[in-house]
Automatic annotation (TrEMBL):
GO terms for cellular component: mitochondrion. Keywords: Fatty acid metabolism, Lipid metabolism, Mitochondrion, Transit peptide. Transmembrane segments: none annotated. Signal peptide: none annotated. May play a role in fatty acid biosynthesis and insulin sensitivity. GO terms for molecular function: hydro-lyase activity. This is Enoyl-CoA hydratase domain-containing protein 3, mitochondrial. GO terms for biological process: fatty acid metabolic process. It comes from Anopheles farauti. It holds the Pfam family ECH_1. Gene3D superfamilies: 2-enoyl-CoA Hydratase, Chain A, domain 1 (3.90.226.10), Lyase 2-enoyl-coa Hydratase, Chain A, domain 2 (1.10.12.10). It is found in: Mitochondrion.
Amino acid sequence: MQYKCGTDQTADRCTVHTAKQTLIVHNVKMISTRFGGFLRHVRHTGGAQRFLSTYTYKDGIGTIMLDNEKTLNSLSLEMMNSIQSHIVANQHQVELRCFILAAKGRVFSAGHNLKELTTEQGPDRHKQVFHKCSELVDTIRAAPVPVIAQVDGLAAAAGCQIVASCDIAICSDISTFSTPGANFGIFCSTPGVAVVRAIPRMRASYMLLTGLPITAAEALEAGLVSKVVAKDRLHEEVSNVCKAIASKSRSVISLGKKFFYKQIALDVSSAYVLGEQVMVDNLATTDGREGIRSFVEKRPPRWTHKE
C-alpha cells in the first residue's frame, strides 16, 4: 500500500513514513561513512599488506608469498612493509626453522613500483622507498633462521636484489635475472650493492651496465643462485632444502648464520679469531654438547633448539 502526503486522512501515516525514510537515510549514510573509513584504514595500514603478500606456516616452514600479479609483484612500499612484517612477526617462533620467499605468477618481482618514483612523489618519498628496501634486506640477513628465495620467473632490479640478499636461492630453469634500471633512466645502484656481493665484479657490471638478463644457468654459474632445477621440481627441491635445515638445531643454525655474515666484513685474520671464539661458545651450548655426545654414542641427536 502506498501513502500520499498532503491529505488529512494520511497525515499521521505520512509523518511516520517520512520519519522512517529519514532514519533509513541517516543509517545508510552512517554505515557508508564508517565502512568507507574502514576501507581507507585497510588501504593505508597493515590490513592492505595481507593482500599484497600472504604468510602460511607448516612443519617448521614459514612461506611468504608475494601476491600482486597485477603489478608483477612490484616492491612498492606496502609490499616491502608486508614482507618485512611477516618476517618480524614470526621469526622468533620456536617451531620455525626457515622462511621461503616465493611469488605467484610468472614474475618473482619486477623491482620497485615506478609509480612511486615519479617527480610528483618528491625526493622524500623516493628516499623512503629505497630506505625501506635496505631495511628489508637487513631484516632478511638478521633473521635468526635461513630465508630461501624460491624463484620461478623473472627477478628484476630490486627483485634481483632481494634474491641476492637471501641466504639460499633456488630457481626454476626458466627463470631470468636482470638489473635493467638504466633502461628507464635510473641506474640500479642499490640492487647492485647486493648483486656484486653475490657474484664476480665483471658479471655484475655486465648486468648493471647493459641491463641485459642472464639465464638461470648463468646465474648459477655466477653464484647468484644456489641451485637450478626443472620447473616441475622446484617445490620439491625447496622442500628438501627446508627439511635438511629443519633437521638441525635451530639455535646452532642461528648462531652460525649470525657469524657467517659478521665475518664477511672482517679481514681473514680477524675472521679466524672471531670464528675460534664462536666455535668455543657453540660447544658450550646445550645443543652443541648434545651433538658431540650423540656422535660419540652413535645415536641421533635430540635437539632442544634453545639458545
